[in-house]
Amino acid sequence: MRPEDRICQICFSEPETEEHFIFTCPAYFNLRILWLQKVISTCNNFDELSISEKFSVIMTDKRLIYGTSDYIRGAYLFRTNKLYVHSDS
Ligand SMILES: [Zn+2]
C-alpha cells in the first residue's frame, strides 16, 4: 500500500506514517505532551532536527527510551481501542 493511501483512521487528516503516529497525529496530543516535554528538555535543539534525527534521539537516548516506549504503548492502546472496541454496535 502506498503511504498516501494509508489515511490515519483516527484523525483522517494525513497518511498514517510512523512520523504521523509518533509526532503529529492530533488524537495522541494529550498522551504526547508530557513525553515531548521531557524529550525537548533532554535534547534542546530537538525541534530543529530532521525527522530521521528525531527518531534516532527518541529511540537511542538512554534517558528517553523508556518514556518513548511508554508513549508509543499508550498511543497504540488508544488507537486499538478507538479502531476495534467501539466499532461494533
Ligand atoms: Zn492521525
Describe the structure.
The protein is mostly helical. It has one domain (3-83). The chain contains 4 helices and no strands. The longest helix has 21 residues, at 65-85. The relative contact order is 0.15. The mean pLDDT is 92. Zinc ion binds at residues 8, 10-11, 13, 20, 25, 27.
Secondary structure layout:
Elements: H1 18-24, H2 29-42, H3 51-60, H4 65-85
Helix pairs in contact: 2-4
This protein binds zinc ion.
Secondary-structure content class: mainly alpha
Summarize the helix and strand pattern as letters. Answer: HHHH
Task: List the ligand species.
Answer: zinc ion
For the record, the count of structural domains works out to: 1
Largest sheet: none
Kindly estimate the percentage of residues that lie in beta strands according to DSSP.
under 5%
Number of strands: 0
Count of helical regions:
4
Overall body shape: globular
- Low-pLDDT runs of 5+ residues are none
Distance between the termini: 29 Å
